Amino acid sequence: MSSFWDRWARFYDLAERTNRKVNSAAAGAVAALVPQGGRVLDCAAGTGLFSLAAARRAAWVRCTDLSPAMLAQAERKARRAGLSNLTFVQGDLTALPDPDGSFDVAIAGNVLHLLPEPSQAVRELWRGTVPGGRVILPTYLQGRAGAAYGELIKIYQGVGFHYEHAFTPETYRAFLVGLELGPVTLQVIPGRVPEGIGVLEKPFP
User: Is the pLDDT score of 151 beyond 60?
Assistant: First the structure.
């Protein structure tokens, strides 16, 4: 899958414009959940939508992705935006190298629907989050996508893209609650491809 994103990194932001209003609203919603001065990990960050939004409030953000080409795009965007509190590291969200409780916020945006076992990724992000912190999981609700997006997906599939889950608001909430990790909230941003901003609050012991 990373080779697909390497090939399509230069076109990714162009494709994302087809869902621009939802993506912009999702970035704002995620930024509002980042505590001022927090330590943030953004996994599967792509070209940096959520990393850059978080960086405007956080002390620092580690932006990670499996695709070096995606990270290069994200780094260029951060420079253009004048943001200097980000680092860019290739990494796998299912196997973080960090000790338990290293981050105030862990984000994984628009990736859970691509994973055969998304619960593994969420539990790893949970492990890396400090008690009192948040795991923020913005996810496209493809089960509610319009017909136009379905045509776009067919084009993606023709060049090697595929996804494992087509969440609806109901099935996504059920997935998060079923992890039995902590209190769950879900904000749904309507649009061409709706987005569910799932948040897990990690309680203190």
Answer: no
